[in-house]
Every structure is written in structure tokens, then in C-alpha cells.
Amino acid sequence: MTGTHTKPSLGRVVKPTDMPDLSEAFSMQQLSAAITSKRTGMKLKLTDVAKALSLSKPTLVKIEKGDPNVTFINVLRVMEYLGLSFSIICDESNSERVSNLDEADDVWY
Fold this sequence. Notes:
Blueprint: H1 28-41, H2 46-53, H3 57-65, H4 72-82, H5 92-108
């Protein structure tokens, strides 16, 4: 008999999660939900991503929970691996605040 025998996968099956509404204002919860959604949509386990990036599983769990104590470079590495990227957009209200801060700095001196 010359058939190939495949070993059944051990562990849980990865269940896809919904992508958050990315048109809403940025938040850590939104970013972590997007990372989780992308990973689960690709049917990748936490251990798969952690191993591929030489990260610990607890670090990846912290990233997916939006823990602010995780280093930004690790978040970026996970995003790049999953095919996610940032866009930086300057809205008008933020530009006015920055402009006011610049003026206040000039007056402060």
C-alpha cells in the first residue's frame, strides 16, 4: 500500500473573528482586534505566529489584548507578518491643536 498518511492536527481549530470597523478613530482595542482578526482569518494559531517571529506566546497574547506594555517594534513585526499596515492621517482638529501648541511655545520663551 503506497498511500500517504496524514497526521491529524492536534489542538484547537482556529475560528475566524470579525474585523473591527477600521473607519472609526484609532484605539489600541481596534488595533488588537484587527491583528486577532487577520491572524484567525488566515487560520494561524498563536503558536504559529509566535514561532515564526521568535516571540513568546504570552507576548503575542498581550499584543492581541492591546496591552500597552508591549514594545511597539513587536506589534509592527506581527502586523508586517500578517500583512497589516498603518496609515497616518492628520485631521483638521489635530492640526489646529498642534498649531496652537507651536504658538504657545513661541510665547512661552
